[in-house]
Write a structure and sequence with these properties.
membrane, peroxisome
Amino acid sequence: MVADLLTYHPTVAHLLKLLSTTLGRDKLLRLVQYISRFLSFYLYRKGYSAATIAPFDAIKKQFGMTRKLMRVGKNMESLKAASTAYDEKAVDPMLKYAAVGRHLGYAGYLTLDSIHYLDSSGIMKFNNAKRISDTANKFWFTGLVFSIASSVYTLRRIAERHASLNKQEAEHSLEEKKLVKDQKSVRKQLLSDVCDIAIPGYALGVWGFQGMDDGVVGLAGTVSSAIGCLAAWDKTA
């Protein structure tokens, strides 16, 4: 009876649907990876033994490697998205070029990250592996800067539109509901990007990120991963 309840429960069915997608598996793996990164640092700072820390450190590294492999080929999606964004005619120029910059940044990151996977997995060794990794992070950082700029600009436009609506009209209009929905979505994306930019920023030692440690980066990655998981969950509803 209990087995039947679990088997046919809609939440279980939804979870299986999520896990059947590459996106869903990647987001869940990423969440566990960054939770483990935080716990690994936290336990180290608290003076726990190496044996206690080792499983979390292994999860952090192995899940990271698994996700690198899963991302191989995704650079083509970003290149196509950049091309599509550039061809858009009826879009605000600021949002258009921010989208192009974002997708090109991600494409560069994913391309170099896949090359770096060959080295880190031992398939093919490169003398300049560190440089490849750093350049990949620079592309990722750049893509996130464009994404953050786009979100900030979009929130400003939404606020301006809110102000232009008549208060009485706004309470009942469909446009008001759409603006509120769009605002929530953009704010969520902005939070995710602000958390994510700490990861390449810390790895590169960018000004403003040097004072961070693995614990802060792990927490930032956990927050953005949780947002990504919820988004993937909603997509498979």
